[in-house]
Prior knowledge:
Blueprint: E1 7-12, H1 18-32, E2 36-42, H2 55-60, E3 64-66, H3 85-89, E4 93-99, H4 103-110, E5 121-127, H5 137-151, E6 157-160, H6 170-187, E7 191-197, E8 211-215
Parallel strand pairs: 1-4, 1-5, 2-3, 2-4, 5-6, 6-7, 7-8
Helix pairs in contact: 4-5, 5-6
Amino acid sequence: MDNTKRIRIITGHYGSGKSEFSVNYALKLRGEIEGKLALSDLDVVNVYFRTRERTKFLEEKGIHVISSSVDAPTLDVPALSAEIHTPLLNKDYNNIVDLGGDKAGAKVIARYRNMIDDDDYDFLFVVNANREKTQNAQEIMEYIDEIEKASKLKVTGLINNTHMLKATTIEDVKKGQEVCREVSKIRNIPIKFISCLEEIVKDIPSDFEGEVIPIHLYLRDDWMM
């Protein structure tokens, strides 16, 4: 059972898979909760694999997508819609925020900090221990420090999403879990989720912390690795 707060902000280094997780997580929540669910795409830094690229699909599933104020998802326009305010302030909404993963991207959410109550959000950091800058606990903690300073928010949970796209194995997941456990122990940040390809779920050890989220690669076409 999901135990996150109403506002769920997802961040992580470029290539961590945060946007893919955000889409899959939104679909999972839509199957579990009633009422309004919004997915806000606040990633104005990375122009590839953004949640807004699946707006039509997500809207058909009952997930309201909020992104650029320009109705042209293939354009790289760093503009934010005023509609972002609505699910942050209106407690009738459950809200997922796909945030840019570096310092510049994290600054975007700082603009809305006064709209986010301390007891109403989770700030979830996606870890891919196969990516540069997040391969060990020290690198991850330094990255978290940068994100927290830029966003003015505290990271409240970790997501082990260690992968090699379609070539991901259970060994990748185990590697990521070991690193996440070290960060969790030092910083007292819980491992909230483990996300991995659907076919790997059965191989995850029962003592791994975190709710398992099976991942389908919605943001990559079949010909892509």
